[in-house]
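Translate sequence into structure tokens.
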Amino acid sequence: MLPDISIEIGRMAKEKILVVDDEEDILELVRYNLTKEGFQVACALSGEEGLAKLKEQHADLILLDLMLPGMDGLEVCRQVKRNAATEQIPVIMLTAKGEDADIVTGLELGAEDYVTKPFSPRVLLARIKAVFRRQRQEPPDDTTVLSVHDLTVNPSRHEVLVKGKPVSLTASEFRILHFLVRRPGWVFSRDQIISAVKGDDYPVTERSVDVQIVGLRKKLGTAGNLIETVRGVGYRFKD
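Result follows.
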């Protein structure tokens, strides 16, 4: 079993990350790159061990492999997000190619992001830092004017500007855009978008979300490229 390793740089240690993966070579690769960046790292080879370590010690973020022996990663994520003591800990899923359905399920359980194996350590570090950066930012309220790149969204006026020029959107298009812009970089499934925009019981199909996104991109012109399709999963707004 791999030991826990902690490192401090300067007077203050960076955040502590719990890595849960049953492949020791991946644990070692991740541990090495994270400690080199100054993060504290705890390792677990199974879901059960990971949950046990969460009871013993604090973690600021969990890197969670979905394909685990015994309790799989989705069940671990479910238990983390259902526990009041751990529900606020961000989870980044480590997934294999072709696990689109599991990725969607993980996001809907509350995971913040995912990285597909095999992955670049630099990409993984960038995703981790992006999650921490978003956590430090105070979430905007429903009246905050949001400006990202050439796009400005004013909820109070129900107004969208691209390079200072107004863009006319339907009510649904505006709500979808506002929802995505409020969390740049976050990946959302179609079901999450429907629930956030219309409510859980609103009779809208996933296909209708795709149609709305197509319409949004056309109306936004060059700014439409800021809405990215995450194949098999959903959509995100570039940060």
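Note: The domain at 16-136 is CATH 3.40.50.2300 (Rossmann fold).
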